[in-house]
Amino acid sequence: xxxxxxxxxxxxxxEVERFLTYLATERHVSSSTQNQALSAILFLYRDVLAVQWxxxxxxxxxxxxxxxxxxxxxxxxxxxxxxxxxxxxxHFVGF
Length: 95
Fold this sequence. Notes:
By secondary structure, this protein is mostly helical. It has three helices and two strands. It has helices at 13-25, 31-48, 74-83, and strands at 85-86, 92-93. Helix 1 runs antiparallel to helix 2. It is rod-shaped.
């Protein structure tokens, strides 16, 4: 267990930043998982424990993977159109 089961009131921003960095660098969690953990921690401290911290920005954020869109080449589109069946009103059938 992270931080040896210490009570949250005994920890500060440094421990939270270390935990969030750990999630990104050691556990390799997605950015949405890390953001969810941050939101839960902020809720705990702000709304449950009534502790206000300045914005936490000293931790490594998970990187969202860049995803390139799938684009068909002109030749691939021609192949698709060549094999597509048309109905009498020129709509594709079978897709």
